[in-house]
Amino acid sequence: MPNLSVIQPGLQTTVQDLGREIHQIDGFPVSGSMDQSSHRLANLLVGNPGRTACLEFALTGPTLIFRTATFIAVTGAQFSPTLNGDPIPQNQAIQIHKNDQLEIGTAKTGRYGYLAIKGGIKVPIVMDSRSTTLRIGIGGFHGRALVAGDQLPIQTQNTLSSYAHRRAPQEFLTSFRNPLTMLQNPLTIRILKGPQWELFSKADQARLQNQQYQLTSEADRMGYRLAGKPLTTSTQSLLSEATVFGGIQITTNGQPIVLLADRQTTGGYPVIATIFTVDIGKIVQCQNHQLIQFQLADLQSAENDIQRQSQLLQRLKAEFNDQRYQEPIGINRAAAQRIQELF
Amino acid sequence: MKPYQLRTVGDRAVSIEFPNEINPEINLRLQALAKIITADKITGIRAVIPAYHTLLVTFSAMVTTPDSLKSRLDQIIADQLAAPLPSKRTLIIPVCYEEPFAPDLADVADYAGISVDEVIQRHTNQSYLIYFLGFLPGFAYMASVDKKIAMPRLSKPRVKIPAGSVGIAGIQTGFYPVTSPGGWRLIGKTPLTLYQPENPEPFYHAGDEIKFEAIDKETFAAIQRADKLGHYHVKVVNENA
Q1: What is the four-CA torsion angle of A17, A23, A27, A28, rounded to 10 degrees?
Q2: Which residue of B lies nearest to A125 if distances are taken between CA atoms?
Q3: A29, B55, B96, B146: which one has the fewest Cβ atoms less than 10 Å from its Cβ?
Q4: Domain spans of chain A?
């Protein structure tokens, strides 16, 4: 199979799809992409199903050489990607020729970026998923983050002239609530009351909403620790319960941990609140020291937002399909590409 | 009938909650429900995750709503609570309770005021329900240990516990599938490989029972050799067999 060569791995680059949710019953973390809306968008731009495996990179992205022609899209945090030294835009499909070098660079804003490749990254499926779980060394590319010299299997995709149209314009990104269009300081994150909300005093329930929290440097794929004035933790001993993506646990020191993709499947700390699914990407994309303001909201708006985001993606997909029959189209583009390769 | 409640957790999950206790009957109901919900392929349901007294059911908010899911779950639970508990299987796990595998066995004997042999006898003469798996892949939370030997966990956890170690933490008992830190009182070790990254799915699941069988060091070595070659088969006893 043709491959993708890793020249520089970046800070932490892993293969991720949307995780192995059903295997939580056997104690396996879900894993999968941290910012799932950016992951889905990247795949849509190259015509992949939403859960197809992408590369996820944090803060500093990889430098890669494509050993075959294909299409790619970069989404998520704002990096400064270049192709053979020339800057390329994010949030649109880019044609790749054999031996092109892609350098992602460093995140200017945001934290996690996604590289979708037409057809996906063909690492073996482990327990129904290609996602890497670093902590236990399974999935992805040999259960680990990429290192220089790795060769990842990808598919050849010679030319698809209609792909020139596949881009997500700024207006789309804004209405899609793309996390990068939402970042501000302090950042408002909407929450729902968690299963142990009632175990906290009225004063602490108010403190969670009224104070600003700061994201600490203890932030990884398992969870982000926040710092603020501590809440009083209940002395009542809790039996462990299953965790959810975006759950906010209050640990014994009274500080919150936001549970993310690689979280343990069960936990015994009280969960005071959970983050709106469509707002998880926002908090995931925060860099250290970011200020965060929680805002209590209702379940109906959380559900509506999930549906709205999904409908927007469907609409974009339909637009791409309609554009297939617009110029530029046809064999001339394929011929032009081969001529270009000759010289 | 046990009272339960359905609680929406976040915007993509509903939790089935039974009374807040470690009770095998409650947990076996949850395991049975987990099986039914998985087998029924209910529209929009994505995963089920049991714990001691709760079963979390995650769903796709694009396909269903918490309210319609709750009314479907109410029907399933009503049917299940009226049915007898399903039969369970018991897996026999060989354990060597000798040095150097049992650094805390003498302490447990002192705590209980009985001999080491009696600790082993009390640990092996009953089976334990796997309430759920969590913490690490394949880490089984099992209970309930004979109260006499239910020694609380170490005040200062060990940094490194070898894979296969068997321990006690209060009324809980279990084995470490991978080398990890931990505070359980170590009383033995199984020669079985419990976790392989290349084939990570455990051979035991929540709702199974585990019974430990004491073996000597020679048997430990022999089973370990056979297991590594893939020639050892864990003994399984079915309740209704």
Answers
A1: -20
A2: B198
A3: B146
A4: 3-180+311-342, 183-297
